[in-house]
Structures are given as structure tokens and as C-alpha cells.
Amino acid sequence: MNQPIVEVRDLSLSFSRKKVIDGLSVSFPKGEWAVIAGRNGVGKSTLLRALSGVLLPDAGTIVLAEEALAKKIGFISDALSLFEDWTVERAMAFHCRVFDIADFDDRLLKRLGLSQKDRIKNLSAGERAILHLSLVLSQKPSLLLVDEVMHMLDPYIRELFIETLIEHLAASQATVLTVNHTFSEIEKIPERVLVMDGGRFIIDETTEALRVKMKKIVSRDPLPETLPCFFRKTDGIYKEYYIYPFREELLADHALDFQDIALAEIIKAFIGGGYEQKRMA
Amino acid sequence: MNLTIDAKSPLPVYQQVIQAIKLEVLSGGLRDGDLLPSIRDLAKLLKLNPNTVAKAYYALEAEGFSENRSGSGSRVRVPAGRQDSLRKAMLESEFKNFLEKAVSLGFALEDIKQLVERIKK
């Protein structure tokens, strides 16, 4: 693996008495697109904020590669920090001054028919997200952090958003970390999936490995106890079982229909398993 | 051009891209000398990671299915003399999938022969 763009060691972060991140270590190489998933309130956004430098950790270190320092981290979040009274033009000018940007790419704004004179408070959620994306990409970030914004975009803008990220990755070898709840449209993109729970990553795998290692069985009968089942939905007549980690040998030992599932469903199962464990704890 | 990638398949996405392009070449959808979409364009079209598309393109080039002249993008090459054997290999792999399904439904080889005879008429 090539040199990491960011390396996190033993990171801990609390809000009042609640420990949100608890001794987390991880590193991300250059050019990788990783998805961070997990239950609501599990600390995903907190981690992105810490990586972006907005939040200071209680303990641990975050080491950035030289090219990710200062102005080369882009952070897009659902709590978009834009001055409501400003016009688009003023926000662009301000951003260019702060980040020493000479050439601002406003093609996305034009495609949505946004005028430079529009006030930010009058923009729709999708227009704000695209404005924010344009501002952040104009920094040509080598580390791009995208906190769940895609779910509030209409389908056209969502596609535009995703295509723009793909284009940026193709042009720049940037590292992209996204926190997502809606996956289906991007599920073929990430190379790596991390699932957060209890202040750490409980899953850290390549997408390729996950598609091989998680299978689903739909059955009326209960499954043998020996099968490794990460999550189950057993309220209906037909019960759903998510098998993880799946191994080829299981095929020979069990006459069951192990179904392939897409990343969106794999992640749902990991999150569902997190709730199951919380209930049992 | 009609390339489909199955999000549920455990086959790595870059291998699916390779197969989809080969299929397109063998079925005549892409002809010798045709320009392949750029890595960026195909990634956007199929909503894939550009790294994945790049990996598939390198493999296609290594196998002689495309040629990259610097600056002008990748062009399709139909490997001379190999087209028939590749088409056969593809038919064989599809037929193997079909046979596996037929066997899992409890059919014997004889049933399949009869089916072929019946359809021929």
C-alpha cells in the first residue's frame, strides 16, 4: 500500500461525559475511496470533524501527509457552514481569498442556473450542496471528507454530485471519505468499507472482500447454530439471516441458498447487527 | 454500447468491466479501431471508481483487446484469430451456468438433449 494521506492513532474524543471515539486507529492511503458507515449517533460525523481539524481530540494523534496540510482538506457536511445573507458571488470571492484560489470552476453552478447574485438563504438544499461542493473542490483537496449530504438531494443533483466526485478522483488521485446512509447509487464506487460502533471500527474490509464474505439466506426454518450469523430478521414467516463471515466450505456442509447481496444491503446488515448487540448488552 | 455491472456479484467490479467490454467486442457492439470511452467517462457513466476502470483497461490492454496510443485514448483491438475461441469460451461459460441450474432443478443430461431437439424443430 502506498503512503497514507492521513494516519490516526489511538484517537479518543468525548462530549461532556460521553466517549464518542474510543482509542480508534486507522489510516487511509492516497487515492482511496472509503465509506464510513454505522448506526445513527455512533460518532461518524465526529470522526470526520476531527479529521478536518474542526474538533480537537482528547487523546491520540492525527498525522496528515504534507499534501493534505492546511488548505488541502475539503469538508462537506449537512450542517453547511455558509453565511445566509451573502450572495453566491461573495461566498466565492471569500473562499478564493482564504484558500488562495485563482481559478474558480463555476460550471456546476451554471448548470443549475444559479446566479451570482442569488442569496444563499434563498437556495434549495440541493443548490447549497452543489455550491458547497464547488467551493470545496476549488481548493483541489487531496483529502475530501463528505458527511452525509446526498440523501437530501433530488435525483438529478445527486447524480451531478456523484459524477463530480468521480471526476475529481479521476483527475487528482484524492482520497475520499464519505459518511453515508443512502448507498444504492454509489455502492459500486468505494474500495473500502468501515463500520463504526462503540467508538471504533468493528469492520474494516475491502468492498471486494465484503461481497464475498457476506451472504443472505431467506428461510422458513431456523438455521443451524453453527452458521456464523451477524444479523437476523425473524419476525415474519420467512426469516432473513445475514451470514458473516461466509466461507466456501459452508456450501458443502449446508444445503442452503446463500444469496449474493449488494453493498447497500451488506452495510444495512452490519448496522442492524450493531442494534441487535446493543439490545442484548 | 450497453455495459452492465451487477452490484450483487461477488466477482470484482474490474473483472466485470473486462467481461462486459469483451462481450461488447465479440458481439460486434465495439469494432476494431473504435475508441473506448476515457477512464473518467466510463467511470461517470457506470458510477464506478476511476481506479476500477483503470485496472480493467490495463488488463484489456495486456490481453490485446485494446491499444493505447499516448494522448489519443484507447482503441479497441479485435485479437486476430482469437475471436472464435473467445466466443466459444463465452458460450461455454454461459452454458455451464445453465447446466448448473438445470441440474439443481433435478434434470439429467438426457432431459436437456431432448429439450434441444424439441427447440430445434
Largest interface: A-B, 25 and 18 residues
Mean pLDDT of chain B: 89
Give the tally of structural domains of chain B: 2
CATH architecture of the largest domain in chain B: Orthogonal Bundle
CATH topology of the largest domain in chain B: Arc Repressor Mutant, subunit A
Number of helical stretches of at least 4 residues of chain A: 8
Looking across the biggest beta sheet of chain B, what order are the strands in?
1-2
Distance between the termini of chain B: 33 Å
Average residue pLDDT of chain A = 91
Portion of residues in beta strands of chain B equals under 5%
What is the C-level CATH assignment of the largest domain in chain B? Mainly Alpha
> Would you report the number of β strands of chain B?
2
Question: Structural class given helices, strands, pairing of chain A?
Answer: alpha/beta
The number of distinct β-strands of chain A equals 13
Structural class of chain B: mainly alpha
Order of helices and strands of chain B: HHHEEHH
* CATH fold-level topology of the largest domain in chain A: Rossmann fold
CATH C-level name of the largest domain in chain A: Alpha Beta
Name the CATH architecture of the largest domain in chain A.
3-Layer(aba) Sandwich
Account of the 3D structure:
The complex is a heterodimer of chains A (281) and B (121). With 281 residues, chain A is an alpha/beta fold. Chain A folds into 2 domains: 4-205, 3-Layer(aba) Sandwich (Rossmann fold); 207-280, no CATH class. Chain A has helices spanning 44-52, 88-98, 107-111, 125-137, 155-172, 207-213, 249-253, 263-280; strands at 4-15, 18-29, 33-38, 59-64, 73-76, 143-147, 175-179, 192-197, 200-206, 215-219, 229-233, 239-243, 259-260. In chain A, the strands form 3 sheets. In chain A, strands 5-6-7-3-8-9 form a 6-stranded mixed β-sheet, sandwiched between helices. In chain A, strands 11-12-10-13 form a 4-stranded antiparallel β-sheet. In chain A, α4 packs parallel to α5. Chain B has 2 domains: 13-76, Arc Repressor Mutant, subunit A (Orthogonal Bundle), CATH 1.10.10; 83-120. Helices cover 57% and strands 5% of the residues of chain B. Chain B is elongated, with a radius of gyration of 18 Å. The mean pLDDT of chain B is 89. Chains A and B meet through α5 and α6 of A and α2 and α3 of B.
